[in-house]
Amino acid sequence: HGLFYVAPNQYAFMLRLRLPGGILSAHQAKGLADIAERFGGGYVDITTRANLQIREIGAAYPLDVLTAVDELGLTSRGAGADNIRNLTGSPLAGIDPQELIDTRPLTRALYHHILNHRELYGLPRKFNIAFDGGGRIGVLEDTNDIGFAAIRVGAGKPVPQGVYFRMLLGGLTGHGSFAQDSGVLLEPGEVVAAAVAIVRVFIGHGDRTDRKKARLKYLIERWGLDRLMKHAEQFLPKPWRFAPAEWCDRRGPIDRRAHIGVHPQAQPGLSYIGIVARASRLTAAQLRGIADIAERHGSGTLRLTVWQNLILSDVPDAEIADTVAAIAALGLATDVSAVRGGLVACTGNAGCKFALADTKRDALALADHLDSCLTLDEPINIHLTGCPNSCAQHYVGDIGLLATKVDRGGDEEVEGYHLVVGGGAGHQATLGREIARDIPADELPQRLETLLRSYLAARHPDESFHAFANRHSVDELAAMISEESLAAHPGGEEAIPEQAA
């Protein structure tokens, strides 16, 4: 039912919802704020699957919570454990000037199909599916078990020109793999059946004996992609349509700041506003306040992203200033630093028994420190994840941090992190490389400061951190956070060149 007892970290229940495409109404948001206030800890967390979690639910309240969720027209069924998790989609679906297709009907169609087919529950392991409509905000579809990526086929190809989907399979970046292109070209009306066919093969043949090898990636490694596709084809009304990627136009660019701030929509005279909450957490009052603003200035729609923030859509341009002011009055931001705009952190050990560090606390401390001592003019993603399950996708961050326990000598063991750099997804698909291990959490801010100062001092003009990291060796990057580098940059706000000539 999507309710989980999360002791010993919290002696209470956690509710995880199902919000297909990360979209909910203002009415639903107000109802969830009421649930969090009446039965939980008075807050909600935005997850890395564009979803919401309510924590600290007392043992007396699960039935009340489930009833209240149902009355909002929502469900939490199958939101955790070995099931198909929340379906993610382009957060700007239907309003993005760049998108190829509105993914909302597809996420909802698959959502309803799953809810109405009990045999699609109880998988060998959890299963992630994402839909990318080709818009400005990336959805990390290539990190999912199934990723549907919208593409356009132009004239002169053996298939009619138009918008199709490529199907990517077996993404699991925490285990070192991006999803592979299956080679098929799907019409929009074919994607639900295609997803279900792959899931059915996984249910029948996924490894149920070893949870470390139970994801779709490992079935593909055992069988090969061709065998998987042949088995899945048995569940389809017609054969797969295979087509080389060369038939497809290149995807439009991803704007790594498009999830934050004010941006024009496809609809003339309307804009959307990307909102950032501290450590992706909203108080019940803030969620209720945002819902009020959405009704007053927008269309009553809220959109969540895999970058752990939310978007208020359909705001008339004449009302933008008033809307931004109302958001700020709630203690929320629409204009933040590059560091805060790209900060991703899992729940951490404040609420998850698997986590080895308090990732949200450390994320805030890191952002506070970096913002106090340097300014970045290029987007950067810093991902903190509490355990090897990598819910925060640390391998695809520009900077990725994997929690660990660090032995400081004697009997003292403290929270810390392993550090990987240079990761990316989509057009920049790269797994980050580890450059340091066992950094105590209290040393992390200064270590990353020296790394970013080295980047600012030695980058090429307009060079991103991703490009900078990937043109340096592991040894060169490790030297940037060495004791010698720390001594050379003891902190403060000394001037450094922003770009090397």
Number of helices: 14
CATH topology of the largest domain: Sulfite Reductase Hemoprotein, domain 1
SSE class = alpha+beta
Across the major sheet, the strand order is: 1-2-5-4-13
How many strands, which pairing sense, and closed or not: the largest β-sheet?
Answer: 5 strands, antiparallel
Global mean pLDDT: 95
Provide the number of structural domains: 3
What is the CA-atom radius of gyration, in angstroms?
A: 22 Å
Strand content bin:
15-25%
Count all strands and give the number: 20
Known CATH architecture of the largest domain: 2-Layer Sandwich
Give me the CATH superfamily of the largest domain.
Sulfite Reductase Hemoprotein, domain 1
Report on the structure:
The protein is of the alpha+beta class and 501 residues long. It folds into three domains: 92-255, Sulfite Reductase Hemoprotein, domain 1, CATH 3.30.413.10; 261-336, Sulfite Reductase Hemoprotein, domain 2 (Alpha-Beta Complex); 340-488, Sulfite Reductase Hemoprotein, domain 1 (2-Layer Sandwich). The chain has 14 helices and 20 strands. The strands form four sheets. Strands 1-2-5-4-13 form a five-stranded antiparallel sheet. It has a five-stranded antiparallel sheet with strand order 3-14-15-12-11. The radius of gyration is 22 Å and the shape is globular. Residues 492-501 have low confidence and may be disordered.
Produce the secondary structure layout:
Elements: E1 3-5, E2 13-16, E3 23-25, H1 26-39, E4 43-46, E5 52-57, H2 62-71, E6 88-89, H3 104-115, E7 129-132, E8 146-153, E9 162-169, E10 180-186, H4 191-205, H5 216-223, H6 225-233, E11 261-264, E12 270-275, E13 281-283, H7 284-297, E14 301-304, E15 310-316, H8 320-329, H9 338-341, E16 343-345, H10 359-373, E17 382-385, E18 399-407, E19 413-421, E20 433-440, H11 444-458, H12 465-470, H13 474-479, H14 483-488
Parallel strand pairs: 6-7, 7-8, 16-17, 17-18
Antiparallel strand pairs: 1-2, 2-5, 3-14, 4-5, 4-13, 8-9, 9-10, 11-12, 12-15, 14-15, 18-19, 19-20
Helix pairs in contact: 1-2, 1-7, 3-4, 4-6, 5-6, 7-8, 10-11
